Amino acid sequence: MSAPSDSGNAAPRDLEISPAELRRLAALTVERLAAHLESLPRQPSADVDGAAELARSLREALPEAGVPYERLLELLFDRVVPKSFNTAGPGYLAYIPGGGLVQAGLADLISDVTNRFVGVWMAAPGLVQLEANVGRWLCDMVGYPPAALGLLTTGGSMANLIALVTARRERLPESFLSGVLYVSDQAHHSVQKAALIAGFPPANVRAVPTDERYCIRTEAIAPLVAADRAAGLTPFLLVANAGTTNTGAVDDLQACADVARDHGLWLHVDGAYGGFFVLTERGQRTLAGLERADSITLDPHKGLFLPYGTGSLLVRDGKALGRAHSVHAAYLPAVPEDPDFVDFSSVSPELSRDFRGLRVWLPLKLFGIEPFREQLDEKLDLIDYVLTELRKIEGIEIVAEPQLTILAFRLVRPGLTPSALNELNRVLLERINSRKRVMLTPAILDGIFVIRIAISSHRTHRDRVDMALDDIRAAIDDV
Ligand SMILES: Cc1ncc(COP(=O)(O)O)c(C=O)c1O
Asked: Residue 386 in contact with residue 455, Cβ under 8 Å?
């Protein structure tokens, strides 16, 4: 028998919660959340004044004693949450807007409290099936065949990494350092990061130039591939965009698929932002050829308005994911190999993980897909409206017309040097954002400072877009 501890034989304090206490804490939380949601449209689009001081003031030693829940809620909702970009609000037209469907938060609560293990299907067959259904639905949305597999990830960066590793495994030998990948010069930086993490030096990544619409010049790929082959290298992967982060540009996916087929390249399409527009008729036309990709990144935390932490990777030959990820470990339960079911741990880098499937499954079951389609259609209409209205403003140059729901513009004044124009637009952006009804962010395109408007939150509607246009007009009068 072990000796009694210093604290004697007293039982440890209980960490369990009683049903009554659960109800009490949940009610307090819901009260706070409801007030937060109700005030979202009136909250500033961003408030980070004094944020560094706030962050420093929050540093503290490991707490020995507990603090009442009410005090923690106060800290969170009164001090911490407000000092941030209001990424869930209707005025967040920055970067790639998210949203954050509240119903997905309820799903997370259920997932976390029931806390089932979903790494192998036999540990929670029903729940794993619900997540597998989500993967299948995503594959159906893009027109993938039954052999495809959809995997939920924490985001687009992780999906791009898994895609790259899978392509490497499928198309290159074990010693893969001769492998070369081709990405548009507008690719999201997560692709370069993925290459680096997967072991490819930056010199193995070719940035293919883009045209005046910021779409990859497909005719530029073959000569690069030929030169690399002549140099003894092994071209293996082409990454195309279904909606770039800068301007929402969609590459010619049919042409990319042709090039990839002709040169034996794996085609990965990064549709983290734009892929879900395939749910709409207009999006389907823009994204024609998407289903020909070997793998596709789609971010439900962008295009399906779900909370951050919800990405996905779809692979046309689902078995490729297994070949890239499965290794045996003696301490894992022997899992019966049943092709009818999927063990997420055998087709992805993760073993234990959150049950993120419910966060997608629950809103899709609750609403059906139609309201999502309507929302995406509305965003396409809204950006058209913005385009029309911006064109009426004297001095505005549309630098990138929207292909989906992002556009880039700048103010041009005659006689200014390029750097003075850039400075003018930097100040203009500051003035627009200082009104705190919308938050816009810039991009640098061929050395030109442009202001982007990205519309993709389920909370952004015509009224907020009108505010954005008013604030742009007023800021132009100011500068
Ligand atoms: C086109 C594109 N790909 C990949 C990513 C990375 O996605 P995540 O932030 O979910 O990791 C983003 C993020 O904005 C993106 O816009």
From this structure: yes
**Stated pTM of the model:** 0.96
Determine which residue's CA is closest to atom 7 belonging to ligand 1: 156
pLDDT at res. 6? 54
Kindly report the backbone phi and psi dihedral angles of residue 266, in degrees, each rounded to the nearest multiple of 5, phi listed first.
-75, 130
Structure confidence by residue, pLDDT tens digits, 408-431: 999 999 999 999 999 999 999 999
Distance of alpha carbon 62 from alpha carbon 350, whole angstroms: 29
pLDDT at residue 288, rounded to an integer: 98
Q: Which of 98, 107, 158 is CA-nearest to residue 355?
A: 107
Q: Which atom in ligand 1 lies closest to the alpha carbon of residue 271?
A: 1
Alpha-carbon gap, residue 393 to 381, rounded angstroms: 19
Query: Rounded to whole angstroms, how far apart are CA atoms 291 and 216?
Result: 18
Q: Report the separation in Å between the CA atom of 389 and the middle of ligand 1, taken as the mean of its atom positions.
A: 29
Selection from 338, 460, 356, 400 nearest residue 90 by Cα: 460
**Tens-place pLDDT, residues 362-412:** 999 999 999 999 999 999 999 999 999 999 999 999 999 999 999 999 999
Q: For residue 9, is pLDDT > 90?
A: no
Question: What are the pocket residues of ligand 1 if the criterion is a CB atom closer than 6 Å to any ligand atom?
Answer: 96, 155-157, 160, 188, 190, 245, 270, 272-273, 299, 311
Q: Ligand 1: which atom is nearest the Cα of residue 241?
A: 1
Cα 190 to averaged position of ligand 1 atoms, centre (Å):
7
47-78 burial: b if 16+ Cβ within 10 Å, else e: eeeeeeeeeeeeeeeeeeeeeeeeeebeeebe
Residue written as tokens 């490991």?
62
Q: Identify the residue with better confidence: 16 or 3.
A: 16
Render 140-172 in DSSP notation, one character per residue.
HHHT--TT-EEEEESSHHHHHHHHHHHHHHHHS
Ligand 1 centroid to Cα of residue 156, in Å, is: 5
pLDDT at residue 2 is higher than 50: no
Position 324 confidence tier, pLDDT thresholds 50, 70, 90: very high
The pick from 95, 152, 188 for probing ligand 1's pocket by mutation, whose C-beta has the most ligand atoms within 8 angstroms, reads 188
406 CA → ligand 1 middle, Å:
14
In ligand 1, which atom is closest to the CA atom of 96? 14
Specify which residues 235 forms β-bridges with: 180
